[in-house]
Amino acid sequence: MFCASDSSNPIIGPSGEWINSDYFLNTAKPGEATLAEVLGDMDGFNIGLRILNDFQRKTPLSEHIDDYYKNGNRFSEFESNFFYRYNMLKDQVNSFSFWFSNYKNQYKNTTCEYKFSKTIVERAMNAFCTSFSSRFKKFGCPR
Questions:
Q1: Each residue of 68-79: pLDDT tens digit?
Q2: Quick count: other Cβ atoms within 10 Å of Cβ 121?
Q3: Which of 28, 36, 41, 78 sits 20 to 30 Å CA-CA off 50?
Q4: CA 101, CA 58: separation in Å to the nearest integer?
């Protein structure tokens, strides 16, 4: 996302669908993160919040994970306190973007220079909202 020269490239995607036993992508234009990566990130975010809210620290990590995947739904979990979680996610994207831009340039195997930008953070959050708008339609993402 930092190096993308074409801002029209999708950030999240492509998604796809199973037809019989074959998986087909819905677009030929690759995104910066696959849909599967973003869903995994959402799971990690939600599980992390469960652990953070386990004030007594009595529940083992394995139980949090088991409960999340057995009883939870990543979208309903995110929706349970949508605006709080959305803003927390945005803060984390902002922090990661800032860290990445400051420290990634130390590695010499990069093909571009990384620069922190609020625009990058906004593009990422807008892509998140657009990709999952059907799931979060009753809330509408903040702008």
A1: 888 767 888 888
A2: 19
A3: 36
A4: 37
